[in-house]
């Protein structure tokens, strides 16, 4: 059984660097809802910026996790 870390890695790598065939496989294997869950729990910086608009359109996703860089004191 694959761990969450393996699932996250497969999804992020396929979406960031994969071909259309990789996208189809990842979507068929995990499903849209599981992909959206993983995307919502990773830092937005893990996905290539040019890929984000396509992910938003294909998976109906807009809940990017932008991690704060620091706190002003």
Outline: globular
Number of helices: 4
Number of strands: 0
Instruction: Give the helix level as a range of percent.
Output: 55-70%
Radius of gyration: 13 Å
Distance between the termini: 45 Å
Mean pLDDT: 90
> What is the N-to-C succession of helices and strands?
HHHH
Salient structural properties:
mainly alpha; 73 residues; 0% strand; globular
Explain briefly what this protein structure is.
The chain has 73 residues and is mainly alpha-helical.
Care to describe what's here?
Helix content is 58%, strand content 0%. By secondary structure, the protein is an all-alpha fold. The model has no long low-confidence stretch (mean pLDDT 90).
In terms of topology, how is this protein built?
Blueprint lengths: L3 H14 L2 H11 L1 H9 L11 H8 L14
Helix pairs in contact: 2-3
